[in-house]
Amino acid sequence: MSVYVTKSFMPPIEEYQKYVEQIFKRGILTNQGPCVSELSEKLSEFLGVKNFHYVTNGTVALQLALHALDIDGEEVITTPFSYVATISSILWQRCTPVFVDIEPNNFTIDANKIEEAVTPKTKAVMAVHVFGYACDTDKIQEIADKYHLKVIYDGAHAFGSIYKGKSLLSYGDISTCSFHATKLFHTIEGGGIIVKEKNVSDKLELQKRFGHNGDNHFCLGINAKQSEFHAAMGLANFGFIQKCISERKRVSDLYDKELSGFVQRPKLQKNLEYNYAYYPVIFKNESELLRVFKALEKADIFARRYFYPSLNKLPYLLNGRCEISEDICSRIACLPLYPDLTDEKVSEICQILKEEI
Ligand SMILES: *Cc1c(COP(=O)(O)O)cnc(C)c1O
After folding, report:
1. Residue 58, pLDDT score
2. What is the mean pLDDT for each group of 10 consecutive residues in the chain (357 residues)?
3. Is 191 in the pocket of ligand 1 (CB under 6 A)?
4. Do 57 and 162 sit in the same domain of this protein?
């Protein structure tokens, strides 16, 4: 059987069926139904956050975050090392992304380089807790306070990571996350938004459902409401979160043991309890990466180039140089990592990799 970089977690089918039967009995399919409410409460409690919104996906979550904070057409300082959705949400709001290069240690935006990118048009910083590693939240908040900027964290990978004793998703004016099928915790498609201020959260609540309440129309809105069937998958998966994290840790620890000295690995903050969402490795150069990929493919194993290219190199963007990000993007890859990946398979992957290095 082919091995891919990730595999969606599937709960026991009876767990899902249980909720689907209730949905069929009630006949309520969407519009903040009972499953959506129950899952929202559970997630909010699990994360230890207030003002949590469950929405259709992690991309719309970012768009709503920008919109709810009135960021519209201005400059947004961001990172070139992420999935394309970070940038597309900024562009979709007709804002201008301004790239700041990344930390070589953990690939998050280099907070020490943010200040020199601030201009009178800067309205916000959108940083990414890439792979579930923590951005320098203290330093970013300090700069935001000094220049009156909003802080949005794309926490698509951050679910389950704990930083300085609280969820990594509890930082900034708004944090978002993704519950897409490939993510650590999923609801097939889905996303979450955590808002610091109650009044912004109330506004976002309206904006995510067309901006109206009954016949009273308050503001411009969009449809980001999630369905009961998606929430049911979330409820079925909810009880397996800790198991998913500990199984991922098992695989990661095994990679660590077998690959130490062969590939370069990120250095994580001391006060981060990591969620083991990804297992990125850095090769010496791109040709070594391509050689390893080819050898793995022969064994029906598919790693992924997360992330490539550096987003400042997108053809519809071409936006300056980010030397560290471009260098890392040319030689970083994520190895297969998911709960039921066997020790034997991990050893096989490591063996192939070591032979090519
Ligand atoms: C997956 C992802 C998103 C988008 O989430 P969707 O739920 O797929 O829309 C945004 N940012 C990052 C960094 C991601 O990995």
Report:
1. 98
2. 94 98 98 97 98 98 98 96 97 96 97 98 98 98 98 98 98 98 98 98 97 95 98 98 98 97 94 98 98 97 96 88 97 97 98 96
3. yes
4. yes
Specify whether 81 is located in the same domain as 205. Answer: yes
In-domain check, residue 30: yes
The 3-class secondary structure across 67-100, one letter per residue, is: HHCCCCCCEEEECCCCCHHHHHHHHHCCCEEEEC
Q: How far is the CA of 62 from the centre of ligand 1 (A)?
A: 9
List of residues 6+ apart from 156 with CB closer than 8 A: 58, 83, 85, 128, 176, 177, 178, 180, 183
Q: Give domain status of residue 8, yes or no.
A: no
**156 C-beta closer than 6 A to ligand 1:** yes
* Enclosing H/E stretch for 350: helix 343-356
Instruction: Report the separation in Å between the CA atom of 241 and the middle of ligand 1, taken as the mean of its atom positions.
Output: 19
Amino acid (1-letter code) at residue 195: V
Q: Report how far apart, in Å, the C-alpha atoms of 12 and of each of 103, 232, 280, 306, 307 are.
A: 40, 13, 29, 30, 32
- C-alpha 354 to ligand 1 mean position (Å): 31
Q: What is the CATH number of the domain that holds 168?
A: 3.40.640.10
What pLDDT does residue 1 have? Answer: 86
Please state, in angstroms and rounded to a whole number, the distance separating the CA atoms of residues 346 and 342. Answer: 6
4 assigned to some structural domain: no
Of the candidates 203, 238, 273, which is a domain's last residue? 238
192 lines ligand 1 (CB under 6 A): no
Which CATH number is 321's domain given? 3.90.1150.10
β-pair partners for 213: 216
Whole-angstrom distance, CA of residue 60 vs CA of residue 123: 19
Whether 88 and 178 map to the same domain: the answer is yes
Ligand 1 neighbour 122 (Cβ under 6 A):
no
Q: Whose CA is nearest to atom 10 of ligand 1?
A: 85
Range of the domain at 193: 13-238
Cα of 177 from ligand 1 centre, angstroms = 7
Centre of ligand 1 to C-alpha 178, Å, is 6
pLDDT tens figures, 104-160 = 999 999 999 999 999 999 999 999 999 999 999 999 999 999 999 999 999 999 999
